[in-house]
Amino acid sequence: MKKTDAPILKYSAKGRSTKIEDFLLRPPVEKGADKIAAGVLADIKKHGDSAVVKYARQFDRSTVTLATMRVTKVEIAAAKKAVDADFRKAAKEAHKRIVQFAVAGLREDWRMPAPQGGWLGEKFVALDRVGAYIPGGTAPLASTALMTLTLADVAGVPERVACTPANAEGGVNPYILYALDLAGATEIYKVGGIQAIGAMAYGTKTIKKVQKIVGPGGPYVTAAKRLVYGEVALDMVAGPSEIAVLADETANPAHIAADLLSQAEHGTGSEKALLVTTSEKTAKAVRAELEIQSAKLTRKAPVEQVMAHGCLLIVVENVEKGIELCNRFAPEHMELIVKDAERWAKKLKSAGALFIGPWTPEAVGDFAAGPSHVLPTGGTAAFFSGLTVEDFRRRISLIHFTKKDLEETVSVVEAFGRVETLDAHARSATIRLEK
Is 332 a catalytic residue? Predict the structure, then answer.
């Protein structure tokens, strides 16, 4: 592998580097992806199953047919036998931790008294049918199966659908199938990409329409999800992976490089890896480690692309300035490896997930810790949050008034009805109090 091209730049309040600004303001959806996604979605909306199969063959390069699109119990049983014992043990441990975290995050129905004897509150009701997109092309993300449908299961969603691309032989990676079965998938379809999003959003004779689509994907999946918003609910914009590391001189350069490479290897070539450090010496050491470590990786081509175009090493004056920069970047994954990390963590406000201290590599969030690894990307962590168990439930406001409660508030209703010229609104309250 050639010498890494990752530049080392300095960030100063006196003047902003164009290269840094362009890196920070990356688009959440790649140019051109919307147009391609729109054409495929329109075809699927009009022609249903036949279009889904056509694009599965074209984009997934699979031999899937209408008859073989849905994964069978026989295929799931075969997958269970095919996966190795170590993975089964690891998947069960991860699943246990995800369940524990999800259960802890469930909100309970609640009530508060209204002033005149009534009450107000909220109740939480599981969605009826959700769809999860599980990437399986450049990297078979078995962990994503656990990080999505496990939450839906804990939330009480009865119909839990998964779409994941088939291979050239028309099969699905057995590790993905095993994880989907463990997570509680009730239906699994061998469809990937834009066509999977279209099928779940619009519904076909084979794949019934879902209420919400969750899960990450490449630029075309992300574009498709945005375009079907309104037809279905969405979790967030979750495109190519990204990581930022804020480190001082106490951080181990080899560890930082390993963490940056962990996201660069995903395979789209659009991933982002950012180091912000108070030490130029650390930045140079990390760049050297990137070259050494990347040469030993299996997925050299995509890593090389990210190192050349999607990796930046920035030196800042102090940790405070580094936090300012990282909050502007709003990364999917944010690692904080500095002295007194827990104190500084309070100032990091824009990130999908925050990994605190030298013993918390981003990979534990991807695979083992418990919170879902489905997180906002492309800077959208500034206003989106990562997937949680509550994303699979509806929140319903509850209002129960007594006559005295209505008497106390009728003047408020009348005033707003008058100002907004909505006299029927006001009348619906006053008519109840007429003698």
Answer: yes
